[in-house]
Amino acid sequence: MATAASRSFSLTAGHRRLGAKLVGALLSLAFVLVFNFFLFRVLPGDPAKNLTRNRLVPAEQVQVLRESFGLGKPLHEQFISYVGDTLRGDLGISYKFRRPVSEVIAERIWPTVLLLGVSTMLSTVIGLWIGIKGAWQRGSVFDRVSLGASLALYAMPEFWLGILLLIAFGVGVGSFPGLFPTGGLSSPNTELASLAGLWDVARHLFLPCLTLTLAYIAEYALVMRSSLLDELGEDYLVTARAKGLREALVLRRHAVPNALLPTTTLIFLNLGFVVSGAITIETVYSWPGLGLLSYEALRTPDYPLLQGVFLLFSAAVIVANVIADLLYAYLDPRVRSG
Amino acid sequence: MTQPTTQEPVEALPPSLPPQLGPRQIARARRRQAAARAWREYRRSLEGMIGLGILVLFIAVAVLVPLFIPSSELDVTRATGTPFSPPSAGFPLGTDESGRSVLALTLWGSRVSLLVGFLATVISVVIGSVVGIAAGHFGRWTDSVLMRVTDWFLVIPFLPLAIVLATVLGPSLANIAFVIGITSWPGTARIVRAQALAVTSRPYIERARALGAGDWHLITRHILPNVVPLIFANTVLIVAIAILSETTLAFLGLGDPLRVSWGSMLDAAFTQGAASIGAWWYLVPPGVAILLVVLAFTMVGQALEAVLNPRLRGR
Which of A155, A163, A171 comes nearest B270 by C-beta? Predict the structure, then answer.
């Protein structure tokens, strides 16, 4: 009876915390909407004029545009219709592409997902491996070299690394020819749905992916190293050794699973950082994803498009944070019952 | 037999101390001692000293460069070299797309990069400290509202937010510093709040309150002195991030168009096609400068944190 009661209690406590997290995430999203609305309303100038800049447009047409923006109405009505439109997926018309923002964004999502997905996976696996090896052999040559390299990678702008790799492997140095294409998703006139097409995309993916992987490895390696170092002083490892376990098993079965906890959630918490890398690296390699789209939008400047991309990035990061919380609660029994 | 007992306390006083010391002087002397102790501990860290050396060098260059290289060397219309020429005797680091010396640009660029880094850090640390102390000291709804806002700034991806703000505000040195400052304070606020909470719950705060101390007195006399060392170590780490952020924003074309910074050099180099003609001499110097400065700030910050953060001490 007692165990059943405490069990149901712990479930409700868990649910309450989950509820609080979800409410927090929804509040953050609402904040993004309000922020977006007001920030782009304080812009100097008239959106209808900005849109028709340098073109001869009849006055009636400008008036129609003004009405479609809802500029004549009071602020609270504008806000309500803005929220309604956004919830329906209507993000306005892009100045630059003269098409709905949602359409432009939808085309660009997959290249970014491909690039970020591959480089996040690679950097996590390699970064965790370096961190574990470094912490386990603390003070060794491997540890000192990898620590120094991680700090250096962390201190350089990732787009600078990207440009250097682009020169070295894309353009070629001296008589050494470029090995990889310098930009884009695929060569012109390639059928994407064929084996040759896939190979072509993979070749284009290589350099941006290598840059991002190197840029992200540093953080995962550093976090994994310090998190494993924290565990190495714990008593349960002494117990494991006293039982006669081999060192490799002490590491694999006891220390690493515990040290993985904070690092696993970091992968999701890190999406904000990952997104920032995508913006500059996609720009360097003209990879046609959301990052390059943000760059094009800010160079124009195309306000509706910027607003849309910002909304999407923020929403993605907020959702990733909720996933990180859920994952942590699932993986760590202390959090689940506490 | 009564004479020695009356004389003992007089002899116990150190002879070097002047007879009447006010509380202010005592506090000042103690602080000086604490600073000297921290410096002695800091000096033992090799990384910290190397970082400090690099920083002193870069700051000296930034301050003194106008004495050696006139600003007219940065003028596009008075450039003397051939565009995009590799390093030579006249131009040790080659020239840029309009024939200016890359060495002069890199040395001058340190001024804006460091200035924006410091300005943004001041803004960030002031906001973070005020929010953190207010949340930790006042508690209740002040705390929940401020922490809600802090969490929002923590969760929103930095670069998209900074891009949106910088685009709306327009490119200028002050705006860039403001944008970086306003997006990078939540970490400081979190750290300061935790420390302020820990201090506020101590008995001597209750005692001070019972003696009639107001919030202002409590914050400035009791909480702030306890929080400052932590803020200090954190500040140095923020400068590193702020300089990197300036570089990224300037690279995206959001920097001050009238001034040269390391980020704006990389922007110009990239958009003018330095990568496709293999003009590495234009790209390498600003990048190496950023790498060195950021690494130096990180090393100094970590060494300071090890000295000043009581939780890390003894590790």
Answer: A163
Look up the ipTM and state it.
Answer: 0.82
All residues of chain A having their beta carbon less than 8 Å from the beta carbon of residue B248 are 157, 159, 276, 280
CA distance B8 to chain A (A): 50
**Better pLDDT: B89 or B287:** B287
- Of all residues in chain B, what percent are helix, strand and coil, respectively (each to 5)? 75, 0, 25
Tokens of A228: 């494993």
Largest interatomic CA distance in chain A: 86
CB contact under 8 A, B163 and A294: yes
Q: Is the four-CA dihedral A18, A24, A28, A31 of positive or negative sign?
A: positive
Query: pTM for the full model?
Result: 0.83
Contacts of B161 in chain A (CB under 8 A): 310, 314
Which of B17-31, B49-63, B106-120, B181-195 has the weakest average pLDDT? B17-31
Residue closest to A256 by CA, chosen among A219, A224, A220: A224
pLDDT band at A280 (very low <50, low <70, confident <90, very high): very high
Residue with tokens 């046609």: A288
Distance CA B87, CA B93 (A): 5
Cis bond before residue A301 (omega within 30° of 0): yes
- Dump pLDDT digits (tens) for B159-194: 889 988 888 888 888 889 999 999 888 888 988 888
- A285 vs A281: CA distance, rounded Å: 6
Which has the closest alpha carbon to B235: B127, B109, B112? Answer: B127
